[in-house]
Specification:
Strand content: 25-35%
CATH class of the largest domain: Alpha Beta
Distance between the termini: 51 Å
Shape: globular
CATH topology of the largest domain: Rossmann fold
Strand order of the largest sheet: 1-11-16-15-12-14-13
Number of helices: 23
Number of domains: 4
CATH superfamily of the largest domain: P-loop containing nucleotide triphosphate hydrolases
Largest sheet: 7 strands, mixed
Length: 695
């Protein structure tokens, strides 16, 4: 059965057909090519060997910009050949000047390994010229790391975490590499948004500072999915004006796009649809919005169709590295017919050819929807994307207004390069690399004196007493205390009877997913959590075969610390300012598999979690409360629905995940003295989203 016939099958199926809210076929698009002059014989030979007779227009435009010395940002769709741009430009420069060095930064280790394979295919096609490349990350052995530092390669593959903790703190050992660094490549930069982007911005500032110290001024090559503000976002990330290449010359295969709005559980409906896709011979990927839903769908699929159990897998953060590599390898080889994943497989890791993408719930942004849909139908193959709607406001809006989705522009990517919590976390790291002076306003142009004074007061920096002031860190390795992913402490999950590590979980997730009594799901296997050992960051669990899963119950409260801006809006008063948010996990539910019926609730006593952030809130006057109640309507239910609708709609205006935004509703807030709806950045210090929401 081909995909066109399968599309007819879905629409005529007694269960799936009733759920179809919209079907659209997106026709194929032709390629647009251009010529690039003066390519070296080695590169021309390699292109011929790789079957690349011509380059797409956007590839040529980007390479020309790099040749002219510009910082270039390529923002084109998935599978449009962006990696060819930086590989060709860098190799061309190395062949002309063997002293040239390049730093390739990827947000995931898996991407490093995948892109290294792509580079080696170029080097082999070029007849193995004297160009060296190495991966330097947390999985590199101590022996190999020492060897790489002693003889740095032409091209170094790493990630922002290793650059932050493993390279910049030891820059003296990398002097030769940094002195000749000509290119810094940042791939998948749309992922560097929010708090992670604020941290990466600071790491880039520190890198530039050290490069300038050694006499280098590297060009930045940025690669991104399509966003509405590529130039502004690229500049805020690397602190340099960038030349943007947006129009794509790559071809596009035909694609079926379904919107499905099932009456039953969307998660279970997606599991049934996944089984049907795989049993009809279509290699399928399902993207979910949480780790727990990923595992639940894997469990349901395994039980609905035991014969395909060995040919499917879940994939998410929290797996051990060797597990992830095994799954990636089986996908690339075609051994796996289907995978259920969180956003972890959204980026360009080679997972072979896939036919159908199931989106279990709207991914939150137009960008992420097309990015995930772009994982199927590569190499000119027709594909299918099926969005299975959840009851959320944004899901249901697009079910009723599909034309709005297809006509909608991409969202803006947002990061806050001036986040004071992040800046003050990185300044001691910079001071450990080289003492800070007043001249460092070249790198921290906003509020540096105030930050230095605050860090002196907190005891994180000390100032010299004589001559021009210089600031030094008071701790020897401040880098170790700065987690750029802002994920919090990592807990390791151990199997009780064997002592084997089976996974990891970070921060508040440990309280919500691995509390005593929780059922931890891992690749369709169930574990019951026995102990959560807070001081050792250990979780102990044992294998079980229970017929239920667990879900926590928590409560939150906000305290207003500072009001920064206020304005009237219609009949309301809207304010923006600093907040303190406290969350307490109070208990958990047991829900049956399948069916999800509530079996009971159980109390928990865990430490409360508190952080400061930025938010905005809407104050509602008493007269409006009385008006709603006079009409016999449920006021608390109404403002709670507004809160959830606002969070659900937020990604329409800023590129973020729903988990980046939090909210609380009050019928009476003790500080405002009236009803209020709070929307806030769900990360300490804020990441610039609430300010955008206020505006």
């Amino acid at each position: 059965m081909d995909l066109s016939r399968f599309a007819d099958y879905i629409q005529n199926h007694p269960e799936f057909g009733r759920a179809v809210a919209h079907h659209r076929y997106l026709p194929p698009g032709r390629a647009a090519y251009a010529r690039i002059p003066d390519l070296s014989p080695e590169i021309l030979s390699a292109m011929k060997h790789l079957g690349l007779e011509r380059l797409y227009t956007h590839q040529v435009e980007a390479i020309q910009g790099i040749r002219e010395g510009a910082h270039v940002l390529v923002a084109t769709p998935t599978a449009s050949g962006k990696s060819l741009v930086f590989n060709l430009a860098v190799l061309e420069k190395i062949l002309k000047n063997p002293d040239t060095r390049a730093l390739y930064l990827f947000p995931l280790k898996a991407l490093e390994h995948d892109q290294m394979k792509g580079l080696w295919s170029w080097l082999e096609a070029m007849g193995n010229p004297p160009v060296t490349a190495e991966i330097y990350d947390g999985d590199t052995t101590a022996y190999k790391r020492k060897k790489i530092r002693t003889t740095p390669p032409h091209i170094l593959f790493t990630n922002p975490d290793m650059l932050h903790r493993g390279i910049l703190p030891h820059h003296e050992a990398w002097e030769g590499f940094l002195r000749h660094l000509r290119f810094v490549v940042l791939d998948e930069i749309h992922t560097y948004r929010g708090i992670f982007g604020s941290h990466v911005n600071q790491v880039i500032r520190r890198l530039k500072r050290l490069c300038h110290h050694y006499g280098a001024s590297p060009r930045f090559i940025l690669l991104s999915a399509t966003v509405s503000n590529p130039g502004a976002f690229g500049r805020s990330l690397v602190g340099e004006p960038v030349r943007v290449v947006e129009g794509t010359g790559s071809p596009r295969a035909g694609r079926h796009f379904f919107f499905m709005n099932p009456a039953a559980s969307p998660n279970f409906s997606a599991a049934r649809l996944f089984v049907r896709c795989v049993e009809e011979g279509f290699r399928t990927i399902a993207f979910t919005q949480s780790r727990q839903v990923t595992e639940l769908i894997h469990v349901w699929v395994s039980r609905l169709s035991p014969r395909i159990r060995s040919r499917i897998s879940s994939y998410r953060a929290g797996f051990m590295p060797e597990e992830r590599r095994e799954i990636e390898g089986r996908l690339a080889r075609g051994d796996l017919l289907g995978v259920v994943s969180t956003s972890a497989l959204e980026m360009g890791i080679d997972i072979g050819y896939l036919d159908i993408c199931l989106l279990v719930g709207y991914p939150g942004t137009v960008i992420n929807t097309w990015q995930r849909g772009g994982r199927v139908g590569r190499a000119g193959r027709e594909s299918m994307v099926i969005l299975v709607a959840k009851p959320d406001a944004l899901d249901q809006y697009f079910m009723k207004h599909p034309d709005d989705f297809f006509g909608r522009s991409f969202e803006a990517a947002v990061l806050d390069p001036q986040n004071p919590f992040v800046v003050r976390a990185h300044l001691p790291c910079a001071a450990a690399e080289r003492p800070l002076t007043r001249a460092d306003t070249d790198y921290w142009e906003q509020d540096l004196p105030a930050h230095l004074e605050a860090l002196e007061m907190s005891g994180d920096l000390s100032r010299t007493a004589d001559g021009d002031p210089a600031w030094y860190p008071t701790r020897r390795r401040p880098h170790l205390g700065v987690d750029i992913r802002a994920a919090g402490d990592t807990f390791t999950i151990f199997e009780r009877d064997t002592g084997q590590a089976i996974g990891t979980v970070s921060g508040i997730r440990a309280f919500k997913e691995c509390h005593p009594g929780a059922v931890y799901l891992h690749r369709a296997r169930q574990y019951l959590v026995d102990r959560l050992v807070l001081d050792k960051k250990d979780i102990v669990a044992h294998r079980t075969d229970l017929k239920y899963f667990t879900r926590v119950r928590s409560e939150k409260e906000t305290e207003i610390l500072e009001v920064r801006r206020s304005r009237p809006e219609a009949q309301f008063l809207v304010r923006e300012g600093r907040l303190r948010v406290t969350e307490r996990v109070k208990g958990y539910e047991k829900r049956s598999i399948p069916g999800q019926e509530l079996m009971g609730t159980f109390p928990l006593e865990l430490p409360e979690q508190t952080f400061e952030t930025v938010g905005f809130w809407i104050e509602i006057e008493d007269i409006l409360v009385r008006l709603v109640e006079k009409r016999g309507l449920h006021f608390m239910g109404g403002i709670h629905a507004i809160e959830h609708a606002a969070i659900g709609m937020f990604p329409l205006f800023a590129l973020c995940d729903r988990n980046d935004i939090g909210g609380i509703s009050y019928t009476l807030h003790p500080q405002t003295g009236k009803s209020a709806i709070f929307i806030y950045d769900a990360h300490p210090g804020g990441v610039g989203l609430a300010q955008r929401g206020f505006e």
